[in-house]
Amino acid sequence: MAMKIQFEGNLSYQQDAIEAVIDVFKGQEKLESNFTVLAPTDQSIGYAADLGYANKLNLLPKQLVENTQAIQLRNGLRISTPQDIDKNDLHFSIEMETGTGKTYVFTRSIFEMHKRYGFKKFIIVVPSVSIREGINKSLQLTDEHFKQVFENVPYKYFIYDSANLSQVRDFATSDQVRIMIINIQAFAQDMDSEKATKRILLDYNDKLGAIPINLLQETNPVVIVDEPQTTINSPLQKKSVKNLNPLAVFRFSATHREKINLLYKFDAIDAYNDNKVKKIEVASITTKNEVSDGAFIQCINISNKSGIKAKVTIDIKGKNGKVSRANKDVKLGDDLYEISKLDQYFGYIINEINIELDYISFVNGKLTQTGQTLGGVDDKEIKRKLIAKTIEEHLDKEVKLNPRGIKVLSLFFIDTVAKYRLYDEEGNPRNGDYAQIFEEEYARIIQHPKYKLSLFKEVKDVNIDVTEVHKGYFSSDKRSKKSNVKEKFEAFKDTSGTVKADEDTYQLIMKDKERLLSFDSPVRFIFSHTALKEGWDNPNVFQICLLKEMGGSEISRRQEIGRGLRIPVDQTGNRVYDENVNILTTIVNESFTEFVEGYQKELTEDTGIKFGYLALESFNTIVNDFDEEDEPIYLGQDESNKLYKHFIELGYIDAKGKIQDVLKQAIKDGVVDLGQEFSDDVTKQIINRIKEVAGNLDIKNNQDKVHIKLNKQVYLSDEFRALWDSIKYKTVYKVEFDSNELINKCIESLNNNLRNQQAKIEHTKAKLAVDQGGIKADGQVKNYVEHLNFQVNHLPDIITYLQNETDLTRKSIVRLLKGLEPRVINYFKSNPQAFIESCIEVINLQKRLFIVDGIKYEKIGEKEFYDQKKIEEEDLVGYLSKHLVVSSKSAYEHTLCDSEVEVNLAQEFEASDNISLYTKLPSWFKVPTPLGTYNPDWAILYNQGTEEQLYFVTESKGTVFDEHLRPIEKGKIHCGKEHFKSIGSRMIVAHTIDDVYSQM
After folding, report:
1. Domains in the chain, start-ordered, CATH in brackets?
2. pLDDT tens column, 68-114
3. Where are the alpha helices (DSSP H) in 608-703?
């Protein structure tokens, strides 16, 4: 027996939304308006002339404006102007996040409007068949609930059917509540006078005795538009709804494109933080150290736009010699060898792009289809990992939730039905790739002791056949058997989600909703088409996995997550509000960072939520006081506007409302300027409201900001000029080295430093934290790495490659490779390209380091030097709390340091009587070296207590010991010492002032 979902009528946020709708008509009397419905001209139908019943609004425009503004004020929203509210074209918006009961709210609002104001005629306009079926199902499920709440009020609901117009007559003539559900496509075409052919709603119907649209217009219905950003997005769609002659239009959505007279908002952030939807957890599975076995080619898609072409992913050699993967559009005759600049693509010239059979082929006889990979980790292996992870997450939740009577469901979205089910010519079904992988992985994973011993203690399905635990929901059609064309069989097929064939699928999904929630059904894993994404919103979906094909249909992260956000129910049909239970795990083939960035971007685009922004209405609902009846008196729109504009003037926010660091710092320091006096309680509310939006970015203290000025007493002194003259000259270098010794160094470094970069899969898992400051990981990000045994059979020409990229001779490279340990050579077979690039990096570094040992610097001449006057041109900015030291001996009034070591050293220079003056060398003071340019730290004038003064350069490091320095650091310091030696100066390395003293 299927369980029954129980509905709660006392959720405060839903009640607030309902009251926002109902209070628009506050002061409306219960009135009845009648009109005449004539008898049909076709007397055989049996209809007599009848009385029609209509809604009637008797409020004055001023009352509607006042009601709307009062609602908006208490809900902290932008206040509509009188010009925004036209009694003859009333539109209002309600924003509610997916999964928070939007359908329940507008359905209950219907009954409340009838109860309080006597309205009886309602039309729900929806954008698609799937949503239409979902609302129809919701009305079925809530029928008993609303009859209890509203004392068995008689009502009837129906889906508009152009073949059954008697329902339209009943809608007009009934004196009871009538609710018509219609998808916009069903009547928008009739409104297009130029294109309409059937004109069913616009033409007189002799069996009805009227023009159908006239009957609807006479009722002056309250129209509810679900998902208006899709339903009434075009001028024709808007005209169609207006032609219904609505008393008022209420627009419900989580993602409004136009927020017309917004009455209530319960957005993604509100729902997430109020625990009215599941928390989101991301399990990421991505490949690392991508490997190519010969030529790597992925065919992403084939199209016929602007000529036949294909989009492929291939390896491409960049100008720096590095190889990376990139997407390229290719056409007939294109040579991948020329495009990639890599030898392994020789012979890969495209000789056919077949749209019908979905493949590209090459002159060398190789071919690949869309979604397939040549020469790389098979995409099917990644899909296997995603499926296995979903099964594991699912079973872990079953162990935890089954004893509590909560059925766990997992949903796989695929965009090619053949990946789940295939048929032979006689209609015999067999598993597609994904169904086969699922059954293999489920059979393997279920044997783990943690599931075998504990799973289903209270349920009997642990040993059920694997074919019973998964099911596909797809549209289908009839096909003929080869042996007998008159004999048909039903087969799944790919669809767009909007065609006639999808209607039966949506009905099946809705019909099975409660059955799937019951332990009586063994089905726990559901496969469905990405095109049918809108139909799935089962509350007990705890895992969602998107098995998308390359080039397949798009489904956004937000759409994907939306199918599983609803709060789950137990076997009694009651919602379970438990944060430890309500976690939706989405299994994705992208990194956690990519997912979070993409999800935040989609939230901004879909909902208009701007993370880190204030709005004109941000402070509307700050409670300023209470009246005699203890009702709150709000700060209101005018005062909120003043605060917003004041913050712009102070630079706290920019012109668009984005919070600046100066406001965050003011909050941190407790010195926010509100522009006027408020009570302590109101001030606290305002600051808390800002904190909710501001996020927690690193803040630099603007009060500590310093424009660093020249210390002219030092800078213009003879001593500083003498110091600068001792170090200012430029040099060139030349090198001498033994090539045999270089090869030995390379062999040693490669054997010691090369690591096996075999292909691996990285698993990452973290919960999301969502607030007005943005989306981030909530707590620890867990990860582990799984190595792939990928066999490479086609090895590239490593000798030629290394020769071209290192300028070593073939003879030297052969000797070098022969000197590598067998362990290291085997790394080449694991990941040839990564091995080659590592070799290039190590060899070129060793070349530069080796060259340093034989380096000789020569002064260019007296006219080539670093000009002291450039110091005057620098505009330096620093922060007192960030490595800035007040200086009396330096060329600047403050010394901007790069580290704590430099800060300590600068302070010791200031305190030491031996240091007459010093300066931090500017970033443009660079010494050329084979390892890249080198910028030393300090120039110092040292006083030994005699007439002799020493001029020298100091490099400040965390250690003075060579062995503790990185090779490049060590090499650059050696070059620096040789440079200054060649111009008659000196350079030392120091960690503290004692290191300076010890080297004098």
Report:
1. 30-266 (3.40.50.300), 295-374 (no CATH), 383-577 (no CATH), 623-694 (no CATH), 704-732+859-998 (3.40.1350)
2. 999 998 988 889 999 999 999 999 999 998 888 899 999 999 999 99
3. 636-650, 661-669, 680-694
